[in-house]
Amino acid sequence: MRQNKMLLPTLREVPKDAEIVSHRLLLRAGLARMFAAGMYTYLPLGLRVLRKIEHIVREEMDKSGAQEILGSILQPAELWHTTGRWDDYGPEMMKMKDRHDRDFVLGPTHEELVTTLAKQEVNSYKRLPFNIYQVATKFRDERRPRFGMLRAREFTMKDAYSFHASYESLGETYDLMHKTYTSIFTRLGLNFRPVQADAGTIGGSGRNHEFMVLADIGEDTIAVCTHCDYAANLEKAEARYAAAGVAPTEDAPAYEKLHTPEIKTIDQLVESLNVEANTVIKTLVYLADGEAVAVVLRGDHEVNELKLQKFLGARTLELASHAEIERVTGVPSGFVGPVGLKIPVVIDRDVLGVSAGVAGANERDYHFQNVVAGRDFQTERVGDLRNAVVGDLCPHCEEGTLEFYRGIEVGHIFELGTKYSDSLGATFLNQDGKAQSFIMGCYGIGISRLITAVIEQNNDEKGIIWPMAVAPYQVHVIPVKVKDEEQMRLAEQLYNRLREQGVDVLLDDRDESAGVKFKDSDLIGLPVRVTVGKKAGEGIVEFTVRKTGEAKEVSLEQAYEEIMGLVAGH
């Protein structure tokens, strides 16, 4: 491509609304333009990156035996009502009505549609298993679109769905998709980790893993073992419980009341009583399906609301307001404690290890000290209800502890089971001639957010540093002076020869200064730059690798050979 004719509007100034590096570079390098919050138009350079990512995804999915389809973006509401997700999905779902006042949804995902497709087209176990996928636009009405394409309202996604007659078959495909995703993200040159995660609104009772690209701006926190391969999203992360630390109940001093006027928070208790936060027993009040429940945990720990909701088996969960707390307990917020509390109580297991704790006395301006779980309050309902923290013992090995990283979720795979086939009545005839629900798996990749992930991991102060596999062009040929016939002749010669060999090459034939050209070249970040300058008459060019910044003078032939070696396999 000749740059003089290309729509490539680079920017010198950093856009004011761009919060993160990848978003700033996305706009400055002329990859895309935002025309409304969370909605983007891909410009030629950005679309080439998107298509290259799609190509890699398709290659690996096809290699796995999956078959590509293309489903309707517009889906009838009836399917979503049948599965119960019309209400469960919440305000993120883009809903609309047609001229006949019928409800439709712009698909955020396609489980309902493909399950219905299988119901209509497959009636025998002999046609199982199969795995179908699509690369298509999805819509989600994000409350706060931000971080460029990381959280957009319209985005490109690869979603796949597998159908099986047995859970053994599902497990085999799940493992294959795990391997396939690993290959995809490796080919993209990403530093990533597969982590255990929660199934969220997709659901399913089997295994599920998120694939996280490690990045400081990631919206997710992941816990990783220092010794083994255990990794989990914070919402799912566990810690090994040290049973040896359970508090003794014999010979412990009796609890006694302390006057603690206006001392309500953990920090205030720590400072005023000269105690450690891990010896404070705090009590929070939640509304689970509208009913009050007290959650008891150590002062240095935080409630994991997802774990709590599952422990309680609640459909909805919210933290009670100060007014609601006083209404259901008769005690102002900050002084509620487990001793003698009249509402249902659930206890995080680490509270059992507090030998003489400080807890609210269920009376304004008073706390108890020397409180012991099991002796002073009941411990009938105990579970892992807290967030893991740095330094926790790994739940999967004896040697490791947990470290935390930030991550961008770029993929998620699920063992769905029969969640959707049961609700939609999607069955086939098994080997015994009886109707059986399809056993399903689903597998998603955020194609467009991968652009953000790649840029976040590959940039410097000058601009983007594209990996060869997804670079919009692999080589940037820059004649310093386009009016110099010898420079243009050499540049054209290399440009044409590379194109004949299928190399993606961009020729900067603009009549601009060398400084402008080099700044734009660093900004858009193509892997290799060949500068044709003063030594063109000698057949000498400057060969620069964008990632390392290494520059050297070589012959035109040597530049060609080195380029062909670098692009081989990509």
From TrEMBL:
What organism is this sequence from?
Tumebacillus lacus
Q: Which SUPFAM superfamilies match?
A: Class II aaRS ABD-related, Class II aaRS and biotin synthetases, YbaK/ProRS associated domain
**Highest taxon of source:** Bacteria
User: What PROSITE patterns is this protein classified in?
Assistant: AA_TRNA_LIGASE_II (PS50862)
Predominant cellular place of this UniProt entry's protein: cytoplasm
This entry's Gene Ontology molecular function terms read:
proline-tRNA ligase activity
Q: Is-annotated flag, keyword Nucleotide-binding?
A: yes
Q: What does this protein do?
A: Catalyzes the attachment of proline to tRNA(Pro) in a two-step reaction: proline is first activated by ATP to form Pro-AMP and then transferred to the acceptor end of tRNA(Pro). As ProRS can inadvertently accommodate and process non-cognate amino acids such as alanine and cysteine, to avoid such errors it has two additional distinct editing activities against alanine. One activity is designated as 'pretransfer' editing and involves the tRNA(Pro)-independent hydrolysis of activated Ala-AMP.
Family classification: Belongs to the class-II aminoacyl-tRNA synthetase family. ProS type 1 subfamily.
| Subunit relationships | Homodimer.
Q: What is known of its domains?
A: Consists of three domains: the N-terminal catalytic domain, the editing domain and the C-terminal anticodon-binding domain.
NCBIfam families per record: PRK09194.1, proS_fam_II
Residue ranges occupied by any Aminoacyl-transfer RNA synthetases class-II family profile domain in the UniProt entry? 38-467
Q: What is this protein called?
A: Proline--tRNA ligase
Stated EC number for the protein is: 6.1.1.15
- State its location(s): Cytoplasm
Q: Name the keywords, alphabetized.
A: Aminoacyl-tRNA synthetase, ATP-binding, Cytoplasm, Ligase, Nucleotide-binding, Protein biosynthesis
Q: Which reaction does it catalyse?
A: tRNA(Pro) + L-proline + ATP = L-prolyl-tRNA(Pro) + AMP + diphosphate
The record's annotation in InterPro entries points to:
aa-tRNA-synt_IIb, aa-tRNA-synth_II, aa-tRNA-synth_II/BPL/LPL, Anticodon-bd, Anticodon-bd_dom_sf, Pro-tRNA-ligase_IIa, Pro-tRNA-synth_IIa_bac-type, Pro-tRNA-Synthase_IIa_type1
